[in-house]
User: What shape does this take?
Amino acid sequence: MKAKVLLLLLLLFVSVNNLSAADVTTVDAKSSNIGENLDLEAVASVFGEAKDLEDFEKKLNDPEAKITNLDLNEDGKVDYLRVTESSKGNTKLVTIQAVIGKDQYQDVATIDVEKDSKGETQVQVVGDVYMYGPGYIIEPVYVHPPVIYLFFWTAVYRPWRSPFYWGVYPPYYRPWRPYPRGRYRTNVRVNVNVNNTYNNTTIRKSKTSIELQEKSRRNDFGKKNPDKSFNKRNKKENSKEKVTSKKDTSRKVEKDWKPTSQRGVKNSKSSAVSKKSNNSAGDMKKPTAKRDNLSTQRKKPSKNIRSSNKMGASNREAKKPTKRK
Assistant: This one.
């Protein structure tokens, strides 16, 4: 009896493990849409809720929120995202990098923070061209001015550079296995503040941010895997679409088939011509009928004319002189 109970418990344990393993699948860089494993609207939302860049990095790697779903190095665990910063004048460039190995980093996205001539802070979240392709930019409009703005424009401002790297992580960080993309998309939307507005644009406003990014950009994963870039992946998809579009799916054309624009054209023309001919014939017949009536009137004198002729003849006979005997 005890042996049967133990066997049942063992089977139950194995089945539960299989279900959990089936529910969690590894999402690696082989996916055709790597950028979909990091929602930039969620990134913009938590950026507006952070008090400084250290807090922002903590929110990105929160094992409860699970903002990221990236596993570029394909080790079965979500990559740690570190935050670095560089600045020039009124421009702050915040860079989000995936830690994929020893001294190996991949830029995922940047956040351009710039104070304009009116003293207002403008923010754009820019997806890295390798991950998201050119011109993938989210421009958030926060319902309230974020507290993190004060961090950038204080007199005692210090640029932030993450102290964490491969093998050295903060105590709160517990790596998790990536979820299927559909489940990740559903879960991550919970972290997006719907009171804000997230505008999509292809125009990057800050030229200074572009200059700063060119000096500090890390593309270690992209250099090793050029075929997995956004442009290469989308070229393959476009070529597939072109091939499928060349397939002949039309029906065989019948011998007496005509386009809809030409159907009934000849018939309508012939009918129009016949109508015109009939009308012209009718018009020609009408005057001949009048002439016939006139000719009949001429041929057949009226009764009055006949009676007058008879009266004239009788009068002439009366006027003739009688011969004297």
Notes: Residues 22-225 form one domain. The mean pLDDT is 75.
